[in-house]
Specification:
mainly alpha; about 5% strand; two-stranded antiparallel sheet
Length: about 140
Amino acid sequence: MRAALNGLARALRFAASGVLNTLAGYALILLARELGAAELAANALGYAGGLALSFMLHRRWVFADRVLAAGASWRFLVVAAAAWALNAACVLGWLNAGVAGPWAHALGIPVYALGVYLGSLCWVFQRPAPDQRGRS
């Protein structure tokens, strides 16, 4: 039961940090589009802009009960790049289907979020060793 509650609390922290990161990244996407950037360039700029904020929130708050894996920052970049590639494919698919740019980008956000969450949970931030649990 406790593990389930911890998992739910982590998912809620991830959602809250995701709202902050999404607002920042989406604002950058819309700004870049307004300034004339191509759709995919605007998308890349928005996600790149939110990357540092995302890692900091994940490390300090969302996955604070876990330890950083060796090379965690590089692992996080790999996870984010893979999630962004999936997001970009979705955005391009929606654009090709005739969905307006801002909506296509918004529809790609959940794909990115799920990819980053699962990658962070399973690969970037690891469970502490049994002798490390319960220590501050």
